[in-house]
Amino acid sequence: MKKIFMIGMAFSCFTVSAFAVQTGEVLTQVTLAGKNGGLNGDKVWDSTQLKGKVHVLLYMDPDERKEAMPFLDKLNKADFPSTDYSTVAIVNLAATWMPNMLLETMLDKKQKELHNTQFIFDKTKHLVKKWQMKDDASNILVLDKDMKILYKKSGTLSTQDQKEILDLVKETLKK
């Protein structure tokens, strides 16, 4: 019985780490659609749409938006060329008490200010499960044009973290 338990534990640990996003690996394909979320207006979003551009991808709890929004503004002010770069903010709607409709309306207004940012909605913590993103937190990934993960962090970004990300994007755009 002990052997079966140990094998089961080893398999479950392997399964979790097999799906977690890791620096140096290509981001695994996921789709947000229907009950799981998607683009505003319930349009399908597929992560393969990220291929071909450098991206900063934020997966965030709306309750933590005060720590993420200033960095989104910095990314927008960096004025990276929209032909080669974009920011994707995936909002974990299931991580908040706020009604989805209110959040979608607020972010629709914010998207007009952030000309090179696309807001995606995750209504069921789908990416917490599929990519092992940290729940109830801000997560950030920097992806190259082939969707390779160049940077990954969960939690509050320090001033140094923000500088490192901006420098990494600039350097990656030169390649």
Features:
single chain, 175 residues, alpha/beta, Glutaredoxin, 6-stranded mixed sheet, 38% helix, 23% strand
Percent helix: 25-40%
The helix-strand sequence is HEEEEHEHEHEEH
In the CATH hierarchy, the third-tier topology is known as Glutaredoxin
Shape: globular
Residue share in β-strands: 15-25%
Number of strands: 8
**Looking across the biggest beta sheet, what order are the strands in?**
2-6-5-4-7-8
Tally of alpha and pi helices: 5
Instruction: Output the radius of gyration.
Output: 17 Å
Largest sheet geometry: 6 strands, mixed
Q: Kindly, what is the distance between the CA atoms of the first and last residues, rounded to a whole number of angstroms?
A: 54 Å
Structural class: alpha/beta
Give the CATH superfamily.
Answer: Glutaredoxin
